[in-house]
Amino acid sequence: MCTTCGCGGSQMRFAGRVSKKSRPGAGLQYRAHESGIKTSEADLPAHGNGTLDFGAGAAGSHAPGISQARMVRIERDILAKNNDYARENRDDFTGRAIFALNLVSSPGSGKTSLLVKTIAALKDAMPIAVIEGDQQTDNDAARIRAAGAPALQINTGKGCHLDAHMVAQAVQRLDMQPRSLLLIENVGNLVCPAGFDLGEAHKVVIFSVTEGEDKPLKYPDMFRAAGLMLLNKCDLLPYLEFDVELAIGYARRINPELKVICISAVSGEGMAQWLEWIENGCRYAQTVQQSNAEPKALLG
How far apart, in whole angstroms, are the C-alpha atoms of residue 46 and residue 281? Predict the structure, then answer.
């Protein structure tokens, strides 16, 4: 995960204004020469065939000069702090019946276009707010605002994902109404966002038919963490050699409970199912809030 990808030097910006470093564990620092680990060439294949598996160690990752044990300690410290913030976010969302979704995908999967269509369909039925995550620019947030929903852009700089502390600060600035829908469009990346809980009700993975059927096998952590997969851009299927059943089978090999909706923001295919799924989630969030409030009312 991102103990090795450069996120430690990330800088967060809200609408172009720099915020202090807020990555959970951002104060953790290390120097690459501390462990003295050297990569051995003895295990490399002597010819061009075979596989080099640098994810086989205890940390599930590799970085020159950092031992597996140290990487595990760094990861645990970062995730523990993030999980504390995520728990606070989830308590806040539950208390206000906010249905929060963490939308994750590769770059270019069609997340933002799908959000624009979703907002157009639901904005008169419920309050909606959007958090946009990108390394740079506020282009996506501008598109969302033009669609009719308040949107706050988070620029992560070198960071490759949002974290729970970023989301907490964004929610404060959005001043969300109770019983709202919160759509969090994460940075385009199928690796690091899988490991970071934001306090959302569900991760929704958007998988485009232009990406190849085996994407779930290549990036299993994200598909394992997701509660819903949107197989997007299905309007392009007549022009592609893409096996829908094979792709869904691969995804469910990783996550047998994964719900799947085939969808297109262009043709409208699957939109009714997607919107119904959201509406059901919002109703459930309100039911949970009510059930939590009733005992307090009795005690009061």
Answer: 54
Extract the tokens encoding 247: 């792709």
30 or 69: which carries more pLDDT confidence?
69
| CATH assignment of the domain containing 187 | 3.40.50.300
In the chain, % helix, strand, coil (3-state, to 5) comes to: 40, 15, 45
**pLDDT tens profile 240-276:** 999 999 999 999 999 999 999 999 999 999 999 999 9
Q: Got the DSSP string for 185-254? A: E--S-SSGGGG---S-SEEEEEEETTS-TTHHHHSHHHHHH-SEEEEE-GGGGGGS---HHHHHHHHHHH
Decide if 57 is inside a domain. Answer: no
| 163 pLDDT higher than 90 | yes
User: 169-188, pLDDT tens digit by residue?
Assistant: 999 999 899 999 999 999 99
Determine, yes or no, domain membership for 127. Answer: yes
Q: Could you tell me which residues come within 8 angstroms of residue 43 by beta carbon, excluding any fewer than 6 positions away?
A: none
How buried is 52 (Cβ within 10 angstroms: 0-12 exposed, 13-18 middle, 19+ buried)?
exposed
Q: Is the pLDDT of residue 101 over 50?
A: yes
Sequence-distant (6+) residues with CB within 8 A of 144 are 112, 115, 116, 119, 130, 132, 151
Inside any domain, residue 38: no
Number of domains into which the chain is organized: 1
Which residue has 């707010």 as its token pair?
129
Q: pLDDT digit string (tens) for 268-278?
A: 999 999 999 99
Measured CA to CA in angstroms, residue 163 lies from 2, 160, 263, 278 at distances of 12, 10, 28, 23
DSSP state of 146: H
Q: Whole-angstrom Cα distance, residue 91 to residue 174?
A: 17
Domain membership flag for residue 2: no
Domain that holds residue 283: 82-290
Q: pLDDT at position 293, please?
A: 76
